[in-house]
Amino acid sequence: MTSSALTRARFIERYGRFFGSQRMATIQNLGYLLVEAWGEGPYIFDAEGNRYLDLWNVGGVNSLGHRHPAVVRAMEEATRSQDYGSLFFFSEAKGQLAEALARTTPGRLEATLPAVTGSEAIDQAIKLARGATGRTEVLHGDHGYHGTTGFALTMIGAADMREWAEPLIPDFRAIRYGDVESLHEAISERTAAVVLEPVRTDYDGRAPAADYFPEVRRLCDEHGAKLIVDEVVTGMGRLGHLWGIDHWRVEPDILVTAKGFSGGMYPISAVVMRPEILDFWGANPYRNISSYAWSNIGAIVARTAIEETERLLPQANAMGDRLAAVLDDLAVRYPNALLSVRRTGLLYALDFRDEAAGMLFILGMFKRGVVVVASSQNLAVPKLYPPLILQNEQIAEFAEKAEDTLKTLP
Ligand SMILES: Cc1ncc(COP(=O)(O)O)c(C=O)c1O
Question: Which of 113, 90, 89 is nearest to 101 (CA)?
């Protein structure tokens, strides 16, 4: 563990202005400032010696917990045995990762375009759908979050994150998430892509009905539109299967993964697609470039994370049932504040009475050493993204601190 005497106050005093003084003051006033010193398993340790149970994990980046031993080991070995590699060239490490994606993703998804972040990969997926179809219209679920680059930002539900960068990209249109009729009315021979998350993670954590994605698939086929599934959060075990869309047994045209793709140890993402989508590139194999995409080190780390996720999933799902029981019990006993809990796999959306109650819960938990966050679009619905290594001990700690916090809510 690294040791540091850097308190929150000293951090602000010494470094605050380098991150924007006013912005840092706002974070401090909110009471949500954490100066990280270390992370291990389900915990973060701050520079003042406090321990936090991390049930956010950056929305699933640390899906295997912090510094998962098998992933750390793979990364250490890779830094000794591998060069970073070059974006124009290939290697066994890259081949094995692409093969692991083709093996685990649904149906005919096989070809991969390497990338670094979720936003970048979403942008690439939309560009590919436009290029492959020769169409421009993009339909996306309302109240979505797909990242903060150009195409992704155009789809963002949170006006606060979008308006200051407008005008954005034309020919994007929101459809009502989970409502087949809304897609039915909007889709046409002009539609290049339909972009959806398997669960609307940044708003209400709602999973669509069992017949939704099969119907979306059918409508996309009927109109020749590409179905892009954003698995940046829902992939890598979050919904109880390796890929969230497996829940609906539907094969998209393009699947995007990032965040937990590397078990939180390496910035790496991927666009996995039906092979014919890349055909329109024709004779030029370099029609998209990203300098840092898929280092050999990142490829080894991500393949290890996939294998660990597959190994841990049965046990994680069993622990997930226990956490669900705790949450349901709290909702029964504190019905004035916590109205209900929605759960899909290891993703929990806590429906609070209003935004004030949601925020009080988040800040109260933080004060007690548990990291939980709200969606950027819905403060009334904090989400839990527990790591797949969750044990009874952490469930008990959460139960005790959540009860303590709920007792204080008006
Ligand atoms: C569903 C979803 N898609 C895409 C992204 C963008 O990923 P990144 O932050 O790595 O660019 C996010 C980030 O939170 C996300 O939640």
Answer: 113
Residue 231 Cα to ligand 1 middle (Å): 9
pTM of the model: 0.97
Q: Is the CB of 198 under 6 A from ligand 1?
A: no
Neighbours of 173 (CB within 10 A): 12
Q: Which domains does the chain have, with CATH numbers?
A: 69-309 (3.40.640.10)
Alpha-carbon gap, residue 155 to 173, rounded angstroms: 8
**d(C-alpha 129, C-alpha 313), whole Å:** 32
Atom of ligand 1 nearest to the CA of 149: 11
Q: Is there an atom of ligand 1 within 6 Å of 232 CB?
A: yes
φ, ψ of residue 51 in degrees (nearest 5): -110, 135
pLDDT reported for residue 374? 87
Of 173, 238, 182, nearest to 207 by C-alpha is 238
Tell whether ligand 1 has an atom less than 6 A from the beta carbon of residue 145.
yes
Instruction: Look at ligand 1, atom 8, and give the residue with the nearest C-alpha.
Output: 118
Model pLDDT for residues 136-157, shown as the tens digit of each residue: 999 999 999 999 999 999 999 9
9 alpha carbon – ligand 1 mean position (Å): 31
Is the Cβ–Cβ distance between 161 and 183 less than 8 Å?
Answer: no
The answer to whether residues 37 and 380 touch, using CB atoms and an 8 Å cutoff, is: no
CB 373 within 8 A of CB 362: yes
Which atom, in ligand 1's list, is nearest to the CA of 117?
10
382 lines ligand 1 (CB under 6 A): no
- Confidence grade of residue 171 (pLDDT, cut at 50, 70, 90): very high
